[in-house]
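look at this:
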Amino acid sequence: MTAELWDKKTEAMSSDKLKELQLKRLKELVNRVYRKNKYYKRKFDENRIKPSDIKTLNDIEKIPFLTKDDLREYYPFGLVCTEIDDIVEVHASSGTTGKPVVGPYTKNDVELWAEVMARSLWANGLRKSDRMQNAYGYGLFTGAHGFEKGAQKIGAMVITISSGNTQRQINVMKDFESTAIACTPSYSLYMAEVAEENGFEPKSDFKLRLGLFGAEAWSEEMRNSIEKRWGIVAHEHYGLTEIIGPGVVSECEHKKLHINADHFLPEIIDPKTGETLEPGEEGELVFTTLTKEAFPAIRFRTKDLATIYDEKTCECGRTLPIQSRIKGRSDDMMKVKGVIVFPSQIEAALMQVPGVSDNYQIVKTKKGDITSLSVEIEPTEERWKEGHIDELEKKAENEIYSILNLHVPVKVIKPKTIPRSTGKAKRVIER
């Protein structure tokens, strides 16, 4: 059954019409950056590319990739393609691994951001009657601001609580009768834990019906845990500071991830060779911003691994391209005894074991060129009291082996030992 769409003209346009629009916008983009930004012009000239060389969508492959290192080299405003006076808002990444990536916005960029976020939240089921508790961290990070802009464009109430102060989150959620929670998936589980410590039953003592989650990779098993714990429908959002923030990809009511491809042109490449892959093949996501003014990103390498499917339409009625959930980041990939391991695979295994809580950490140890893994898990309070912890460890080890065909030692530690996070959970630690 076709759902009510936010922008039916765009979200349900034919594949041919979408490609026609993408090509028109791509040509305009390439012409603009070549004229407006000396760094882009130099990059094009060094690779002997002229804007007139872009005649088809496939011609985008002639243009070199943009990487995070490039963005840091031109920090903070080297890739801006408008006058600095036209910038009305600035966001940035955390910069934990170097200079932060800066995202400047013109007035039109801000309006575009609100539009794609409204489209995304509407697809999740958010409506004017909802009260969205915005528990993403406010500040330079894009998350909270994107969700706020989109929800307000729909007309929903936004509770601007930010992240942290979890006790207050629970009180506000109860008193304000929040119907939607926007935060990282791991933080929603911590909120449920605190609610239970306060004598609440998360599923029945609150008005929540929607979870709007992003900013970290999470498994389908974690989604099931969140939905069961809170009694809500949990939806995924995907975005990047380098592209616009949240609003690039989000789920419809059928939990299929739709790319807002009229504004963000997607590609899938082989992360090792840079070769373009066909629909249905797994590789690294690359995005080009077709309509952003202040900071257009052309062929930005995300390092996120996923698949884009060649489906023409979805049960929801949208024809926008469908993307898989993020398998992991290419730089999160670990090779252990010749086996490729992603943290999400270990999480999926642990979530299958009765008695294991949602809290775990993967311990990575390197000796020379040899990487070894172990996992520390917290059992539920009830399982901890039962004892026979060695049996739980063995079950978890067997479940991990069934997925990875690799023996990973598991150690059970006392409940509430692993540090909790109000933002992105730190799942992998090095010792």
Notes: The mean pLDDT is 94. The chain is about 30% helix and 25% strand. The CA atoms of residues 292 and 415 lie 47 Å apart. The two ends are 52 Å apart (CA to CA).
